[in-house]
From TrEMBL:
<keyword id="KW-1133">Transmembrane helix</keyword>
<keyword id="KW-0472">Membrane</keyword>
<dbReference type="InterPro" id="IPR012496">
    <property type="entry name" value="TMC_dom"/>
</dbReference>
<feature type="transmembrane region" description="Helical">
    <location>
        <begin position="191"/>
        <end position="210"/>
    </location>
</feature>
<dbReference type="GO" id="GO:0005886">
    <property type="term" value="C:plasma membrane"/>
</dbReference>
<feature type="transmembrane region" description="Helical">
    <location>
        <begin position="280"/>
        <end position="304"/>
    </location>
</feature>
<feature type="compositionally biased region" description="Basic residues">
    <location>
        <begin position="635"/>
        <end position="645"/>
    </location>
</feature>
<feature type="transmembrane region" description="Helical">
    <location>
        <begin position="503"/>
        <end position="525"/>
    </location>
</feature>
<dbReference type="Pfam" id="PF07810">
    <property type="entry name" value="TMC"/>
</dbReference>
<feature type="transmembrane region" description="Helical">
    <location>
        <begin position="327"/>
        <end position="348"/>
    </location>
</feature>
<protein>
    <recommendedName>
        <fullName>Transmembrane channel-like protein</fullName>
    </recommendedName>
</protein>
<feature type="compositionally biased region" description="Polar residues">
    <location>
        <begin position="808"/>
        <end position="817"/>
    </location>
</feature>
<feature type="transmembrane region" description="Helical">
    <location>
        <begin position="360"/>
        <end position="383"/>
    </location>
</feature>
<feature type="compositionally biased region" description="Basic and acidic residues">
    <location>
        <begin position="763"/>
        <end position="774"/>
    </location>
</feature>
<feature type="transmembrane region" description="Helical">
    <location>
        <begin position="403"/>
        <end position="423"/>
    </location>
</feature>
<feature type="region of interest" description="Disordered">
    <location>
        <begin position="760"/>
        <end position="835"/>
    </location>
</feature>
<feature type="transmembrane region" description="Helical">
    <location>
        <begin position="574"/>
        <end position="594"/>
    </location>
</feature>
């Protein structure tokens, strides 16, 4: 690594040198960000980073102060230490390897169940630590021995019923004292019990709200019916799957989903009005039956509770049989929760929903309705009947919740061990066409949500109920993992795992946690606590403990601000009205923002579609234009090639054209000198002299060359109008008028010189016609030279007619004509070389 700067400069290309020098001048964080943004492969990025580090570590490239190097090294060490701590914490995470194994074999949809189960387990661990630390430990420190009646002993049945011996322990509300323990600090059990339960419920609500919002923000995507098939094809692959069998099964499931989606769309398009009415009738009947089942289960639980109330006696005189009879209600409730969802699944098969999402949502709503109806009836019975029946009613509600938790756990174990196991045996041994049973994610998730709801309701009546919930979830995790591995397969039609996770958290919060919080709040606000047990004995309601605490605080002058807040904020209806109004305004603002973003998304989608149509239209037009004009494309290509060649040969061609012009001028000057020597005294007017016409022709030729060069640079290769040639023709016409002034006879058409001039002129005209589309500056030069040569020949003919034959005036004209023809030939050769 200890490379010098010179070695780096020699070994690295110029661009890499500049990049490395730029990276060296940046900080470490900026270097990492810059290297990550490079559009190169990982190996090249690694090479650039190595070179930059070597360049920075070399002695000649060390431009930074020792303080800055020290700070950078310290930041690097701190960052590496943070990475190592993070790695260790990840390795110590609960069930990390098992989670990866489940996700690799069964996908993210099944993994969501175990993630939620682990999350709820952490909820209960936190609840146990809080309750045990702030409520149970102070009580145990003050009084280690439970106040157990001499007639009560532990019989083992208490593990199922929660009654008997457990009724006199710290498991339930009735065993906690209302005293204030004196010590280094005064510890009020009433305030400790109230604030511990309240803070725990508030924290659970906040965690659920933030988790639901975060999951909705990251994972939930608004599904478009038109893009459902595209989503299934492009975005539905589960990259957490690593098992080959699971990969092949996922491919088959994806193919089946696409076929079903296409067939469902085609079926909806072919449905007639009568078929749609029939389908709606099936929906109505299924929902009517499912709702009737839920209401019937709630009614049956209510009458069963009334029967149990009639048989109820004082708990101290319960026999073993009487204590076992208390398991009747939780047994019936758990049996309903296990059997009735099977009927709901049967309804879904008859309904034939057009999409899997609708089917899952319908099943979830029916199961939620069933459990809410049962829990609603039980809570009504606990809040209204039990307080009137028993003098110490809070422990009775705690025992009922304990029995529900225990019996529900037993049914969950039986369903996993026998239900899924027997289904696997039947599907593989007896009826192979049934196949291996699927792991029903929705049903299993609702089961653990229902169990957690029981723990939230019972935390007020049984502060140590989270201990039972921790054991239950811990055992259930391994039980479900073993059953999943040996008895189940991934669901054939798995929905979007991210959306399902968001929906599960929503269900956990809105109907269940909100319901449990309402029950606890109603108990603390409205119901009168027992007079002979519990920390709130002798109070009108649980919330009255805050009033008594404020009265004690009011006696201290340094805490008057607490009293003012309580009287003017907490007990003020205006404060809650303003809070509610602000929340409603914020909800409305965010709702408007959501609607605006939805409209923007629709407009952007339309813009993308329109841009695609515009591109297709332009491509179609371009293809049609290329097909309809093949000759024009070839000529344009030829002109482009000729233009490039002409620009490359312009320097040499201009020198040849200059030589030709010089030769023509010399020939013309020699002819004029001969005319002056042979003149017979007749003066030639200057305004009609041939010399002026020739000079104008030569100036016109030079102008034509300049215009030709400019035209080829500004146009697409089309030949420019030969304005200079027109001027040359005008000059020639003036010369012909001059010839008419001096001549008195007609031209001799049989003159061989004239014939040769005519042939040269015709050849030039033919060349001009052949190259009319690709004319260049040599064409103009050749035409002007031809016109000059023809003018010289005509003047020589006039001299031969005017002067006597003995003066021999034709000889100079012949030499001039030959030179002009040579110049014209040279220009023609240059013109040919241009192509």
């Amino acid at each position: 690594m200890a490379l010098s700067k010179n070695r780096l400069v020699v070994s690295c290309p110029t661009e890499e040198q500049n990049l490395i020098k730029e990276l060296v001048a940046l900080s470490t964080t900026e270097q990492i960000r810059k290297i990550r943004e490079l559009p190169v492969s990982f190996e090249e990025k690694k090479h650039v980073r190595t070179q930059a580090m070597a360049f920075k570590s070399s002695g000649q490239s060390h431009h930074f102060s020792s303080l800055r190097d020290f700070s950078q090294n310290m930041s690097l060490l701190i960052r590496r230490f943070g990475y190592s701590i993070k790695s260790v914490s990840q390795s110590l995470q609960l069930w990390r390897g098992i989670m990866k194994e489940i996700g690799g074999k069964f996908g993210s949809s099944v993994l969501n169940y175990f993630v939620l189960l682990k999350w709820l387990l952490l909820f209960n661990i936190f609840s146990f630590l809080v309750n045990f630390g702030f409520i149970t430990i102070p009580l145990l420190v003050s009084d280690l021995s439970p106040n157990v009646s001499p007639n009560v002993s532990f019989r083992g049945l208490e593990l199922l019923t929660g009654a008997g011996y457990f009724n006199y322990t710290v498991m339930y509300y009735g065993s906690y004292s209302n005293e204030t323990f004196r010590g280094l600090v005064d510890y009020d059990m009433q305030l400790a019990y109230f604030f511990t339960i309240s803070v725990y419920m508030v924290l659970c609500g906040l965690v659920l709200i933030f988790s639901m919002a975060s999951s909705f923000k990251k994972n939930y995507a608004l599904a478009d019916a038109a893009s459902n098939s595209a989503w299934q094809l492009l975005c539905s692959w589960d990259f957490s799957i690593t098992n080959e069998k699971a990969v092949n099964q996922r491919k088959n499931n994806l193919r089946i989903q696409l076929k079903e989606s296409l067939s469902e769309k085609a079926h909806r398009e072919r449905q007639t009005t009568s078929e749609q009415l029939k389908q709606y009738g099936i929906y109505f009947g299924s929902w009517l039956l499912s709702t009737g089942l839920a209401v019937g289960c709630g009614a049956s639980v209510f009458y069963l509770c009334q029967y149990e109330d009639e048989q109820a006696e004082d708990t101290e005189t319960w026999s073993a049989l009487k204590e076992a009879e208390t398991l009747l209600v939780p047994f019936v409730v758990s049996l309903m929760n296990m059997v009735i969802p099977l009927f709901f699944s049967l309804f879904n098969k008859f309904e034939q929903y057009s999409s899997q999402r609708k089917q899952i949502y319908a099943l979830l709503f029916r199961n939620v309705l069933l459990r809410i109806s049962i829990l609603g009836v039980l809570c009504y019975y606990w809040m209204n009947t039990v307080p009137q029946k028993f003098t110490c009613w809070e422990p009775m509600v705690g025992q009922a919740l304990y029995r529900l938790v225990i019996v529900d756990f037993i049914f969950l174990m039986l369903g996993s061990l026998f239900g899924e196991f027997l289904s696997n045996v039947i599907g593989t041994k007896i009826q192979p066409r049934l196949g291996v049973p699927e792991f029903d994610v929705a049903r299993n998730v609702l089961e653990i949500i229902y169990a957690q709801t029981l723990a939230w309701i019972g935390i007020y009546f049984s502060p140590l109920l989270p201990v039972i919930q921790i054991l239950k979830f811990f055992i259930l995790f391994y039980l479900k993992k073993v059953s999943l591995t040996h008895n189940c397969q991934p669901p054939r039609r798995s929905g979007r795992a991210a959306q399902m996770k968001t929906i599960f958290i929503f269900l956990l919060f809105i109907p269940f946690f909100a319901g449990a919080l309402s029950i606890v709040a109603y108990t603390a606000w409205s119901l009168t606590p027992s007079e002979h047990c519990g920390p709130f004995r002798g109070l009108n309601n649980t919330f009255s403990v805050i009033g008594e605490w404020i009265d004690d605080v009011n006696k201290l002058s340094s805490t008057q601000w607490v009293v003012w807040i309580y009287q003017n904020v907490i007990r003020s209806e205006i404060f809650y009205f303003l809070i509610t109004l602000i929340i409603l305004v914020l909800i409305y603002i965010f709702w408007q923002l959501i609607q605006g973003r939805k409209e923007l998304i629709v407009l952007l989608r339309k813009q993308i579609v329109n841009e695609g149509k515009d591109k297709s239209f332009l491509l179609e037009k371009l293809q049609n234009l290329q097909k309809s004009c093949p000759e024009v494309n070839k000529k344009q290509k030829k002109r482009t090639t000729h233009t490039s060649r002409r620009s490359a040969e312009r320097s040499s061609g201009s020198q040849s054209n200059s030589n030709a012009v010089v030769q023509v001028l010399l020939a013309r000057q020699q002819q004029e000198e001969e005319e002056r020597r042979n003149a017979s005294g007749v003066s030639v007017p200057s305004d009609i002299s041939t010399s002026d016409a020739m000079m104008q022709a030569m100036l016109a030729r030079q102008k034509a060359e300049r215009q030709d060069e400019n035209a080829y640079e500004a146009t697409d290769g089309h030949p420019p109008p030969l304005d200079a040639v027109a001027q040359s023709l005008a000059a020639r016409q003036r010369a012909e008028e001059t010839d008419g002034y001096w001549s008195t006879t007609h031209f001799n058409r049989s003159n061989p010189v004239y014939s040769s001039i005519i042939q040269v002129r015709q050849s030039a005209e033919r060349d001009r016609e052949d190259d009319s589309h690709d004319a260049t500056s040599p064409v103009s030069s050749a035409m002007i030279q031809v016109m000059q040569a023809r003018q010289k020949a005509e003047e020589e003919e006039r001299n031969q007619r005017i002067y006597p034959p003995g003066q021999n005036a034709a000889s100079p004209g012949s030499s001039a004509l030959i030179q002009a023809m040579l110049a014209r030939q040279q220009a023609q050769n240059e013109y040919d070389d241009g192509y």
